[in-house]
Amino acid sequence: MAPNVTGSPTSLFLAGAEVISPQKTVQESAVQRPTVPKVLGEYRWEIVWRNVIAFVYLHSVTLYCGYQIFTGKVNLYTLLFMFMVGNFAGLGITAGAHRLWAHKSYKAKWPLRVFLALLQTVAFQNHIYEWVRDHRVHHKFTDTNADPHNSQRGFFFSHIGWLMLRKHKDVFVKGKTVDMTDLEEDWVVVWQRRLFLLLMPICCFAIPTYIPMYFWGESFGVAWNMCVARYTLSLNNTWLVNSAAH
């Protein structure tokens, strides 16, 4: 159930009050209508403008990239290559961060774990440790304030809005109750977390942009735009699980 953001129940206002006429009650209620602040309990919205600007840029480039594709400005090899990269990056999320590390659905030896960790880095949806922690909190405290993408707060919030606002304090409090020792003991996860800020720009953006330029002469502008579009579509593909599937 969504939190009560409109104030106290009517009965609280009447307790211990003088008996007044219905007409006066209607007149006062018409004048003193409660406002609805952007507050959920003790939580107040705090927009993360850096993320908002980044998402506006990503989606704007993706729309422009669609224009470039339909006007024949994108090499077919570039289109196929980015499609392949997007699918491999998706494996890093689905087979890696989700099924292997978050839910422990199967066991994998270190070569496969390293491979999946690299693919998850290409996907750039935070490092494995943070992705798994948020996902486990989501399952343990589904549709509460501790759920990072609480669907009770609406479609937009559960899709992308949760990344545009500071997390509710319950996410941090309840997140500390989630057992993460299995990841803390996995050297692949530990090292990916340590090297993430170095590896992510290389794996997610630099290499996928460079390959079309080097091997079949794609322009930098087109290669970069296609790389951004591939990343943006991959993000939305994951977000749809949180929004449309709930």
Automatic annotation (TrEMBL):
The keyword Hydrolase does not apply. Keywords: Fatty acid biosynthesis, Fatty acid metabolism, Lipid biosynthesis, Lipid metabolism, Membrane, Oxidoreductase, Transmembrane, Transmembrane helix. It is a multi-pass membrane protein. The chain crosses the membrane at residues 48-70, 76-97, 195-216. GO terms for molecular function: iron ion binding; stearoyl-CoA 9-desaturase activity. It is found in: Membrane. The keyword Metal-binding does not apply. It comes from the Eukaryota. GO terms for biological process: unsaturated fatty acid biosynthetic process. Its cofactor is Fe(2+). One of its GO terms (cellular component) is endoplasmic reticulum membrane. The histidine box domains are involved in binding the catalytic metal ions. Belongs to the fatty acid desaturase type 1 family. This is Fatty acid desaturase domain-containing protein. The lineage of its organism: Eukaryota, Metazoa, Ecdysozoa, Arthropoda, Hexapoda.
